[in-house]
## 1
Amino acid sequence: MSEDIQLLIDDVVAKALAGDMDPINNIEDRVTRSKAKAALVKAKRFQPQIEVDSKSVQAAEKSDTESKQTIEQIVIASLSKNFSDFLDGEQNNDWVQIKAENWFDIAKYLKTNEDLYFDSLQCNTGVDLEQGMLESRYNLHSMKHLHAIEIRIKVSIEKPDIPSVESLWRVADWFERETYDMFGINFTGHRDLRRILLPEDWDGWPLRKNYEEQETYHGIVVPKVKEGWE
Amino acid sequence: MTVDYIFDFLTGLLGGFLGSDYLLLASMLIPCLAIFGFITVYALIVIYAELKVSSFIQDKVGPMGQGVGLHAGKWGLLQPVADALKLLLKEDIIPSSADRPLFILAPFMIFIGAFISFVAIPFGESIIVADLNIGLFYILGVGSIAVLSLILAGWASNNKWSLYGGMRSAAQIVSYEIPAGLSLIVVIMLAGTLNLQDIIKYQEGGIFNWIIFDNPFVPIAFVVYFISALAEVNRTPFDLPESESELVAGFATEYSGMRYAFFFLSEYANMFVVSAVAAAGFLGGWQSPFAGFMSTPAWGVFWMISKTGFLIFVMIWLRWTLPRLRVDQLMNVCWKVFLPLALINIFGVAIWTVVFNS
Amino acid sequence: MGVVHGQEMVLNIGPQHPATHGVLRLQVKTDGEVISEITPYLGYLHRCFEKHCENVTYEQVIPFTDRCDYLASMTMNFGYVVAVEKLMDIKVNDRVQHIRVIMAELQRIASHLLATGVFGLDLGAFTPFLHMLRDRERIIDLFEMTCGARLLYNYMWVGGLSHDLPKGFVEATLNFLDYFEPKIDEFENLLGHNKIFVERTADIGIMPAEVAINFGVTGPNLRASGIKWDLRKDDPYSIYDKFDFDIPVGQGIKGTIGDSWDRFYVRLQEIRESVKIVRQAIDQLPKDGDVHQSMPKKIRPPKGSIYSRTESPRGDLGYYIESDGSDTPSRLKMRSPAFTALGVLDEIAGGWLMSDVLAILGSLDIVLGEIDR
Amino acid sequence: MKRYFTDIYESVSSILGGMGITLMHLIKARNDNVTLQYPEEKWPRPERNIGFDHNSYNVIRSRLHVDMDDCIGCLKCERACPVDCIKIVTEKAPVRGEDLKEIKHKGVTSNGTRKALVVTRFDIDMSECCYCNLCTYPCPEECIFMTGGPNAKKHPIDYEFSEPDRSDLIYRFAKKGAKEGLAEMNAKQEAEA
């Protein structure tokens, strides 16, 4: 880059910082122009940013939530009337952690209860918590009351059994198959628990943190190092 | 007739050198070769027309070659030639589990069906290979050979998609022949003959003497015939046997190269045959639309080809406008709409003729 | 009435088939032309998106989200960016929000154009499809002008955008909209009201509202079943609450509510609504504002998890992000709308004719890249 | 019965309407088309009636290019790449910020940064590149960028970079013989010392 161009860039960046974008856009050469734009971005980063007064916003939100019960509290209160000993460990404001044993009944209650009426299962995902624990998370949503909740169920990696809710929300059919496919969580009572995305004869559960790729698949060597690269 | 002319001509020219058997054979082969040449040239033209018309309808430019080198010529004029060459030079694959003899036979049979129909088509006052006194009936009859070969192709390919295509085409073509035939009966009733030349001669004397303007029922018969003809030649909206988004390529799924080209060619040849029958039966054939004006035999060929060409254009136009029907709807339309309409037309024309024309 | 039952035949539609919109294999049991059972087999396009994401940083995930739904890359970017911004509690300025909305709605138009066009193609109408592609091309030109790429944009970044709008973009977009609006009517007349098309789609593949909810079907497919549910209105993200637009729902004009024709028509109406939104967004577009203003130097979200939903052209696009405080996500799950839409196929398409099944598949508007991820 | 006739009427009218639309397109075929006759007409596309000119493009993603004279070997682009298609190997320069004529190494970048490293290998595998543009932003010297575009005088439009062999798509930007030259120089210095 010659000095003239550097001078030009400095000039247009200064102008642009003053609010006049035209000189930068009028540069003929595209490379120079993009360089000037990049320089402008850098120059702007070092400018003091406008602080968003988020504290007051948060305070306003907080007072709102304090007056009302969160949906998690409502769900727990409603569930404890009908079930005993279903909570698992410490509770959080963002989700409900329950035990795997009577998950199917709880799900049925959540789906059919008039006040809760979680008729839509938005998402089901597995998470590898490491330390030998897997977790299945359900994001429920009610089309009627427009509220949403997250349910988490922890299972050990040795015996990852969770009751299937496939017969309640049919969308769980494929969601659970996918979670099974990726994490090896066994959904008991699922009518058709097969791998969905990977081939039937794939080894291992790919999204577990301790997964290692197989060396060969049907006699094809799985390439791990790029040829002619290292 | 033409065979006789050629025979006489050849006898006069070569009578001293060859026996009359050879000359007869030669005078039969020459029209055959002429028809074959005509079909080939016509297919190239109509493929080009199809490419261009479809492109313009779809806001594309179609085959184009603007530069030098091996492009498709000016405005892509060489594109159909290139297509034909590609099909000719392609490897010919016969699936190992196919029924070999039938698989090979099917494309030839469908082409024969299209080919021999040309024999009875009147291109001009005296330009017809065989002036049969049952010309119309003959064309309808040999047109049905296509069904047989499509079923053969579908069955012999040993492919489920082909089988579907074959079965669909059988049902479709057999059904649609009935309204097509019944609509042509209107023509036969008015002209009083099955001979295509005589039918055309009946329509002499300008556009208003054409059969289509004879009485209010005939235009309906023409539309019924035209749509049924579309179905007979498997054009959209009736291209169910080869519907590419459902059955991959229908009966032609396993065919490639030259054999596929035969299916292709005979589809276009059949288009010409049905359009020519419609032109001869309803639109005055080689008669000029203006009585006594541009009505020499040479102009006759022009009128015949242009009328047929217009109908072919309408077929292409329809193809690039409409979606495809479903199997049961196809049958519904045939049996519940076209067949009653065709029958009503026959009665209507009969009554009209008795009341107004007698 | 006595019914003759033939032998059942098992037929594989796909993985290589003109009507499967990618590499999808449907194993169907047929009795003649009637299809009794459909089993979809997925995974032919599986590219380990979620495993990849655990190994790259947050900004490097964005090019991968492009490649999931390659027909609506902008909205895929948008959904991911919104999720990460929620997780990190970043507020972006108004200009960025407006540009994002303009891009997302243009992308929605492009995606719906292709969806409706391909639906016509599945039914044998070739011309509307190419008319749609022609107009989509112009939208892609606008995107190319903005960010240099035509299909996979990597345009929306966490806290900003990769580029500001180029000079002349606003005029070009307005020109395009002026050109485009009459074309929607033309398209509707050419395909939507064609009697053959109506016969092929009305009353075919009816999806009742309960079935749709139970199967997790979202987006235009759900709205065609008569439920007014759109995240842009019901759970507004970005600045969608600023705009005035309607949510078209299926009304069963040609047949029953929730049939294939309704799904087609809802998409067509949504194109019109998107045009409205783009016009409003361009009107309100703030003149100044740096698109890189609130971009964090290093993206390190705090420990925690979030499930964030946005409205992609195919439905509710959810990102579940679990962060462990490092600069790579510890788990990222994409809840893909086409995945659930395909799940309902067996339920609504069993018992129809072969041609109908492919029509229903076309009306669901699936993208295999997003299903298999 | 009424349904029967309305059906027929609707069919006929809608089909004729559709044919009218297609006929209009057939007649005015050239109005709206966006086709490019590729080998003859090259992008940047000839003027269409969309209403913008090519100068207003922001950036074009055509191919990555590196100005080796400016590269300081900071590895930022290598780290930014989501598909790992950039591979850089650097060696310590004998003297910081000095030109090495033997291997055509420039000591100072055009931004005035004095280089501490010699880049002996800078490979970009364009067959793996996903054109995301992420590598061009962190570069402190702006020496890696996407080329092409209508106004690029320095690099003409070069989006036709197909190669018969996949390995030809690995672009090697480092100066030829840099590694050997540097080793030779070091050996010479050692011998002198």
Note: Residues 159 and 297 of chain C are 10 Å apart (CA to CA).
## 2
Amino acid sequence: MNAVQSGLVVQALLALAAVATGLLSPVSWRSRATGALCALLGVAGIVTGAAALGGANGALTIPLALPIDPLVLSPDRLGGLFMIVVSAVGALVSLFGIGSARGAEASRTSWAAMAVFLGGMQLVPAATDVVSFLLLWEIMTLGSTVLLLADHASRSTVYSAAIWYSAMSQLSFFFVLAGFGVLVAATGGTGFQTLATVPADSWPANLAFVLLLLGFGGKAELVPLHVWVPRVLPEAPSHVAAAMSGAMVKIGVYGALLVCVRLLPSGPPWWGVLILVLGGVSAVYGILQASVASDLKVLLAYSTTENMGLVFLGLGASVLLRSYNATAAADAALVAALLLMVSHAAFKTTLFLGAGAVAHATGELNLDRLGGLGKRMPWTAGTFGLASLGAASLPITSGFVAEWMLLQALIHGARLDGEVVSVAASIAMPLAVAVLALTAGLALLTFVKAYGIAFLARPRSRKASIAREVPWVMRVPLVLGALAVVGLGLMPGPLAAAIAAAVGPVIVPDVHTVGLAGVSLSGIDAVLDPGTLVILAGLVLVPILVIVALGARRHPTRVDPLPWAGGGSRLRPRMQYTATSYAEPLVRVFDDVLRPSRDVEVTHVGESRYLVEKVHVEQTVSDVIETRLYRPVLNAAQRFGLAARRAQDGSIHRYLGYSFAALLVVLIAVSL
Amino acid sequence: MRVGTGAAAHAVELTWAGIGAPILMAVLQLALFVFLAPLLIGVIRQVRARLEGRAGAGIWQPWRDVRKLLAKEPVHAADSSWMLSVGPIVLLVSSLLLCVLLPLVGTLALPLIPSDLFVIVSVMLIGVVALALVGLDGGTAFGGMGSSRHMTVAALVEPTLLLSIYALSIPAGSSTLSLIVQTRLQTPAVIISPVSLLAMVALAIAIMAETSRLPIDNPSTHLELTMLHEAMVLESSGRDLAWLELGSWLKLAALLGLLGNLIVPWGVLTDFTVPGLLLGAVAVAAKVLALGTALSVGEVFLAKARLFSVPELLAGSFALALLAVTASYLVA
Amino acid sequence: MFETTYPQLIGLCTGTLLLTSALMVWRHSMLASIRLLAVQGLALAALVAVIGVQKGELEVILVAVLVLLVKGLGLPWVLAHESKATTRTDEAPRLNPTASLLTVALLTILAYVVSSRVLARDTSVSAHAAPIGLAMVLIGFLLLVTRRQARSQLIGFLVLDNGIATVAFLTSGGVPLVLELGISLDVLLVVMILYVFAGRMHNKFGNTDIDQLRKLHD
Amino acid sequence: MAPSLSFALWTPLALPVLFALLSLTVPSPRLRRLGPIASSLAVLASGVILVVAALHDQVPTLGGVLRADALSAYLLTVVGAIGLVSTWGGLGGGGHSQTPARWAGSYDGLISVFLAAMSLAVVADNIGLMWASIEATTITTAFLVGAHRTGKSLEASWKYVILGSVGVAIALLGILLIYAASRATGEATLSWLVLSQPGLPLDPALVRAGGALAVLGFATKAGLAPMHSWLPDAHSQAPAPVSGLMSGVLLAVALYAILRVQTITDAVIGPDFLRAMLSVAGLLSLFVAAALLIRQRDFKRMLAYSSIEHMGLMAIGAAVGAAALPAVLLYMLGHGLVKATLFVVSGRILEVEGTPTIANVRALLVRRPGLAIPWLVAMAALVGFPPFSIFFSEVGIILAGWSAGMGVVVGIALVLLLVIFASLTRLTVALTIGSPHDALDHTPPILPKQVTPRATAPGDESDADREATVLSRREAEAGIDGAGVVNGVAHVADGGSGPEPFPMTSNIRVAAPFPDTVAVTVVDVVVAPDRSTHGPLLPLVLALATCAVVPFIANPVGVLLVRAAAVLGGAH
């Protein structure tokens, strides 16, 4: 037994132990014991993944009763990378859960499901064949569904969330199953190595590609398969939402990479265009919805759609450019996509956990009722702020490095040695840059809004005003997450090198570490060393701080309850800008896309037609894709279901008629 | 056309040319622009005053304002957080970094942090975010309004900004500004190519929006319906206000300097010599002041656009930038 | 002598079978149907007997006796017994007589077409008559689909069963006696059960109209 | 060796009949009700013995009529296992409550006879005998379906008998045609062993017609559309154990008959004809199930349609042929066990809730976790979640389907499966999830008299471990942070106390153990959840555990499946 093999066994055993502990331990120490075991499970996953990423081999074989190949778990380097990411998120989330899970969230079922969810999820990247992949995938789905249901008894919204989630998960699963089925039929085996022998650009490869892309895209919350996200993530307990958004969607990305890097590495250009379009639309749509969202978790959920859209944008650019042999840019795009994936895991986990901390402290996630938490919850505010920087792709965070690299790849993509590689690329790349830029701009607004409204200014409700900082067991994962965001942002070099190793051995990105753990892309002449930038900023800062220190001694800051009050008086917290009002200009600008429903009600004073006593404005932005794409289908299905009842109306004559008709048809068929 | 540097070029060369000269140039740039930025605002205001038939406060008035504000105590609202004092400093640092990183006096690149336009834009955006958060932290309706509008504009500007950079980067084969400027210096034909012109117009509009100038924002208004930038700084006072003002001015100066060097790259230091350094400093100062004057003159004739017609303007500039990029691939 | 009359006998028997089936569709009276069923049972028994004589197998003759007892006498008697007590009235079937008879014609044609394909290799006399059996199956099914009374449905089922038996004897000269016994027993039991249920239905609802069995539906 | 094991061929027939007689004669209802369990055990034991024989390459035969190859042995085991789950799990009540006392004995006896008939159907070597025993199941189950002796159960049994008998009659017609064709071998035979040999000079036209009609007929018993119409009515009206038996065993045995017939026809006319027929039937079944599950209201009918769905998928597996057969066989076991479990639980829910309508039950997880949890686990298995074996069967069939060039069929099947999945999830969620308050009208809740605030004994660990199932987040915070224990919570509905109602959240303990009826009568109040399973839990646990473990046992289960499939020509 080598490191990887024993690591896999340990993970399986830890998962089972956590399930058992969750089911059997009393409530007094259930959360602590199970949470600790789950965190250990995560650590085991990190170690195993690291070993696999380092190139160690090891396999765990599980026999099956059906005469198909046995299940073989053996992570390769890419799998190792994903295992690390997913496990790390799992560990943080479990720690946080110890503190945050209360009531139904800390029930036996929830903790056992947590272990199942995490265990299944972090083993998915170890699968080397179709059946074990699907098996672990479904275990992951099952665990997360149960977790989602934790609060079912107290909130009726869980009901529809659960249905949406399981239906959309199953849709993804069926897409994946069908896609793999096509490949299995074409190659005659279930192992991924066998599947990879499918001839490129044959119809099975094309069909399988589309099916798998849709399947994995669904898990990665891509438009239009994202509809579960804004329902599910707000309903799930915060630490579970963090695990779903921080880790589970990465499994979707892993699947897409499995397809684009391992199984079908040399696709035609239209594959790349398809991924690009899917990713681009998701990115813009996701961030638009996020920017107008008022519920913190909904905002974060849509932001995940955006980030995954960007990951797929990078992946699509990579596939497209590779099909034109623009290898250097293609590699850079691939590394950028993975970098974004890793950094998203860091910042989105922290953000969701931060939202969980806010909910824990205030019981409120509606930004319109938060505010002023920065003073009351400094740890949460600080970590949430850093993670927000990451989500907004601003410097010294990992999100920035990823987006920078993606931009570099895109602007260098359309040309190769001074020649335009293709018309498609020269149209696609500028549009991709535009999408990326618009997304980045809106992300900026979104997270300024999220952080500014929630943590700055004055509390907008009583619950926000009496908030207290969360206990240390919840602070630790927050701090670790924020450290990861900044650490990966300051030292992208080693991470990029690891990613380059992970996507090998066929694809070998030309990535190097330079300076203070900075990163350089030799193939496209780009270099970035955030560490040096920070040093430079520090140098610039010194004189300012000196002036401030001197000034503060002579003229210390004065605190006044309402110093300027915008020129008015009696300024109450409710008169502050809220999240809704913050996004209002944007809603107007993107009126055609968001299609908000506005309801304005004016009450006049007495008989007057001019004096207004009260104006009631209500504006809701619903998910256009859900209302325009899914609702009609669902309504049609419901109508059909109602109509179909008539086929089973209880009349035995009708039933006999069915049989008779079948008999006649068979007789006719027989005599043909 | 493609100026290759290769991986080896990114290695730190512990030589005078590799480290010393760029650092010296950067320090000079920093000092020059800290001095120049308030002056630029003074010039802009003075020119405008004269054109409008007023006497004006003189070109040194901004300097005097800063000195005065630095000597005053800041007043914070009781519910505000540290953001009110940290935000202005962050804005200032981001603007100062712009002055260090942009090829203003010369194109000597600092080791490991070349003047990559994407990095520069991000550094600038940090300042934008800091300002927006300061606006929110005041806890008033005006601050939130300004912040909201400011961020909306910033979000919509970003595509134009990045695409125009993209367009400019194509002839140089790199998004590093010093290389772009060098390319334009070596082959001036690039400057007046239609692609470049489109990109420059788009970039100019983007910079106007980023620096809160007309027609996107009126820098001298205090009418609630028209304020963007001013609404955000309404609650700041004393030192905080000084940093905010200085930071905004520095940003304007640095971006005008960049614009100047892109339009008229001559005078820029490419190989280190002391006279060249001085020439570069004088050249960039002249370009900035000239552009500032032109800006001021232009603003006299412009009215502020309605907030909700701003997106149309930005969409137009975005179209120009996109046209520039695709044209440079498909026409060139 | 028998060899020459054999085809005619087969034709006579099968003709009677088809005729009785068609008449059952036509006539709505329960009593008439039961009498026709009895005639059909007799015809079937005769058919089996003819085949048995032709083959010279005692076993088949015994089967003929069994058929005579069960289908010619037993079942009609049971049905008639109950029928007298309860329903003498005509029922209104779901299809009018003209349409029914037309359908019968079509079904018979279908049976001939199918048989011509299926039994193309078999050129024996009996095989030529096999379509009659298939037609009876279809007619029985038609009765099941169109009749509203529980007992009428039972009759339809019996016609269908007779049809199957006809096919069996005409295509393969019958099945082994043991199996035939088993099959007959099964049919008998089914009829018994339906009979019991019809009785329960009568007790519960006061009549045996199948149309009232519409409680279970989606 | 061989003769020593052939006793296991008659034990599953004789012993149940014996137990049936005992059931009719023994006066004690308690003992009598053990009869069906004993019968199931007898069948199961015989099955296991025959499986052992099959694994040792023996094929026990008896009198040229009974024969147990690997397939028969496997199916006999399946019959026994599912029978055991249904009958043992049915002990909790369900079937007997409404059966008049004088019929009680015959009820148990008929179940035993039913099991014997099923066993005969799978060990019979003669197709005619197989047919007769399947028809015999119609006869026995007819009374079982009508056991409740209500108008509805009468209706269900009438439909069942008419439609079932007609269907099986058509099968008989098909078998007779095959018999006619078998004259070409020299002597007419119905021996399965003889007929399934390859290279027989049978008339293709006859075999094709015979095979088609036989499959059509047996499809009726297998619940395949469009012959399925009897199934929802019968399954929903029959007592729960009977429903479980019918759904788990009867359908599987009918499919077994189809598989046997298919082997004969495949050898003569090739697989295409029946493949097309089974594909159409399978897809049609999936379609019917999907269409009628969308707006389903009754949880027992829901299970019935789910059976149609699963049989449809198995039919598609059968259409795929050799490669999918092991998966289909495993499917029979998995579906049978899970469906038997679900029907048993549904019987208990019906008994305690008094209604089969989903809308009238609701919030079962909060109110009756003892029933809801087995239900949910089994539903997860039913809709195909791993590690339960249905997952592997479905994946196996679908992968094999693509490989067999039936991509279109599989693709359509997946679309329909998705609809079915979504509908089943929606219905299950509606049945189990949520707070009881959602289900009730907006009558203001009142505090129960039995509730005594602040009465928690700190050392009472068993009670202390109860979970607060009806806590909202905020309530939980207030309730648990205080003392770490919440035993039961009285919930005060919103309204009256301003925009943010403050719920009653102290540690409240339900003093007396509540009788089951309290939850129904004191509807407005969340009482202590009813944790009783209302019947033996062990059979359910065993069924689900088997379902979860079996797919991972390559030896002997895997070997057995391969051999059983090889009997049907599924050898690799």
Note: The radius of gyration of chain A is 27 Å.
